[in-house]
Amino acid sequence: LEKQRTGAVGRTDSKLFEARTENGPNPALNPELASVIGAAKKTGLPKASIERAIAKGQGISENGNPLESLTLEALLPPSVSVVIECQTDNRARTLSEIRCLIKELGGTVTPTSHMFERRGRVILKCEEGLAEEDAMELVLNAGAIDMEIQDDNTICVFTDPTHTASIARLLSASPMMKLKGYEIIWHPNPQTSIDIDSTPGSRTSFVQLISQLEEEPDVQAIYHNSL
User: Fold this and answer.
1) Most CB contacts within 10 A, which of 24, 28, 30, 125?
2) Where are the beta strands (DSSP E) in the chain?
3) What is the rounded CA–CA span in Å between residue 200 and residue 160?
4) Of the given ranges (33-47, 96-110, 188-202), which has the lowest mean pLDDT?
5) What's the pLDDT tens digit per position in 125-168?
C-alpha cells in the first residue's frame, strides 16, 4: 500500500480535475465526475476541496481568479529528489508556504529536475479479453514509449510529451480501449532512483512527508525518484 502511494503521487482532487476537464463540470451530465465526487466524499474530502478541484479544472480559483502553474524542486529525507507541481492565484504566497513547509519537513529547496525527464502519461481502460501482447502492439504502433499494466484492466502508457495528446486520441479510437485521462509528468531517471527500503522505517517516514505536502491546497502533483 505504501509503495502504491509513493509512485508519482496523484491527489484525490487531481482525479476530480481530470474528470471535470474531460467531460465538463456538471456531475449530472458527467458520470465519471459524479463517481469521483462520490468516492472523494467517502474518503472524507471536504466539500470545499471538491469545489476547489472542479474550479481548477476551469483554470480559476475558488474566488474566480485565474490560476498559473508553478513548479518547485527539493530534496527530502532520506535524500529523495522531488518535483512539486502547483496551481495558484498568488505565486508569491505559494512559493513562500511550500518552501517553509519543505524546510519544516527537514528538506532543502534545490534543483532536482535533472534527475527526471518529461514524459506524457496516458491512462486507458481496456475491454475484457484484450490480451497484454495485443495491448502492447496497439500502444507501440501508436508511437508510445512504454506501457505498464495496472489494476482493473487499466494501462498506463508513456509517450514523448510532444505527442501525448495525439497518441491518446489514436488509442482511444480503438474499440478495445477507453481514455481515462492524459497528462505530462516528471518521470524519474532509473539510474538516479533511490532505494529507501534499505533503511528500516524510511518508507513510512517518507510517505508521511509526502502526505503533508499533499495537504497543501495549491499542490497538484508530487513526483519523486524513490523506488
Assistant:
1) 30
2) 9-10, 68-76, 80-88, 108-109, 116-126, 146-149, 154-159, 177-188, 219-224
3) 37
4) 33-47
5) 998 888 899 999 999 999 999 999 887 889 999 999 999 989 99
